[in-house]
Design brief:
By secondary structure, the chain is α/β, with parallel strands linked by helices. The protein has one domain: Vaccinia Virus protein VP39 (Rossmann fold, 3-Layer(aba) Sandwich). It binds N,N,N-trimethyl-histidine.
Length: 340
């Protein structure tokens, strides 16, 4: 087996060298989380084009960098969505009704769910779904302390796969899904449809409160992902730093550039790590050659139009309801009704 993998292997043909590399990883790396990162990064480096899931951004340093992104002057989504929630809290609460049984997809946005909990009339329960048990535990402890009367029932689950929710409470009002932050935009259109189809089933007879970023002036989008302080660049490059820390890779971060741009026909921001020069990188005993300018595609962040989101929601089985936005129409909060 050649240890050097060509950078230009076609994506859809069998790739014996990288298959062998993957098999080697499966037998040498034990921790599940680490092995899926190793497996996925090896597969990404061996493919052409190269791409990896943005979920690997979020180790502890990556999550801290994301929190800093949310504070950046250029990064409007977080503060805009929070503003929409606050400005329309009464209308949202009125629409959702009393004793709501709230299911949050991901437990990353405690600040946002607090605004919702404060606004709603006597929420019955809070059920956060998150893939990380540790993160979930911390989030629930904080919420229980602040809302002693609230039932908090976390579920460790990957909401991009099939999941089961706790049984309905006889005393509760509507089941209300909450999916803020435009995380839906990280999915491919096919994945987004699948997620919404599952949610429409899980929330039958209730509603989904969904926050999505809107299509807008590309200059504003570009600035939000190319901030002057370089925090988004550090967030992107952390993927390679993480591989060095966790997988013993030897990426030289200075040999990669942060590249983020708006792909207008696809209605998405793309983030890439671009090789500044021809170089070889080592990972799990394998060596990969990257040509100057070649990239590892690390994230898509889809932007939506109101009508596009409604069409997608209807295709998934939801009935579109009210939409709340900011005055500049930068971000949107949709209430989608899930039929019984
Ligand atoms: C958490 C996926 C909504 O796409 O805007 C921020 C992640 N990436 N800056 C986004 C992100 C670069 C963020 N989401």
């Amino acid at each position: 087996m050649s240890a050097v993998l060509s950078a230009n292997l076609p994506g859809n043909l069998p790739n014996p060298a990288s298959d062998a590399a993957l098999a080697a990883v499966r037998t040498t790396v034990h921790a599940t989380a680490a092995s899926s990162f190793a497996t996925d990064l090896l597969a990404a480096l061996g493919n052409q084009p190269r791409s990896i899931s943005p979920k690997y951004f979020y180790d502890a340093p990556g999550s801290a960098l994301f929190d800093r992104i949310c504070e950046l002057p250029e990064y409007y989504p977080t503060r805009t969505e929070l503003g929409i929630l606050q400005s329309n809290a009464a209308a949202i609460a009125q629409h959702l009704g009393p004793q709501a049984d709230i299911v949050e997809f991901g437990a990353g946005s405690l600040l946002k769910v607090r605004v919702l909990l404060e606004a709603l009339e006597a929420p019955a329960r809070y059920v956060p779904l998150d893939i990380s048990g540790e993160h979930l535990h911390a989030a629930c402890a904080a919420l229980r302390a602040d809302y002693p009367g609230l039932r908090v029932e976390p579920v460790v689950a990957d909401y991009t796969q099939a999941y089961a929710l706790p049984a309905r409470l006889p005393s509760a009002g509507q089941r209300v899904g909450f999916f803020p932050g435009s995380t839906l935009g990280n999915f491919t259109p096919a994945e987004a449809l699948l997620f919404l189809q599952h949610a429409a089933q899980a929330l039958r007879g209730g509603a989904l409160l969904l926050g999505v970023d809107l299509v807008k002036d590309p200059a504003l989008l570009h600035a939000a992902y190319n901030d002057a302080a370089g925090v988004t660049a550090a967030f992107n490059l952390n993927l390679l730093a993480r591989a060095n820390r966790e997988l013993g890779a030897n990426f030289v971060l200075a040999h990669f550039a942060h590249a983020a741009f708006y792909n207008a026909p696809m209605q998405r921001i793309e983030m890439h790590l671009q090789s500044r020069q021809r170089q070889q990188v080592g990972l799990c005993g394998q060596v990969f050659t990257l040509e100057e300018g070649e990239t590892l595609h690390t994230e898509n962040s889809y932007k939506f139009t109101r009508s596009g989101l409604h069409a997608l929601a209807e295709q998934a089985g939801f009935q579109p309801g009210p939409v709340w936005t900011d005055a500049q129409q930068h971000f949107s909060l949709h209430c989608l009704q899930a039929p019984v």
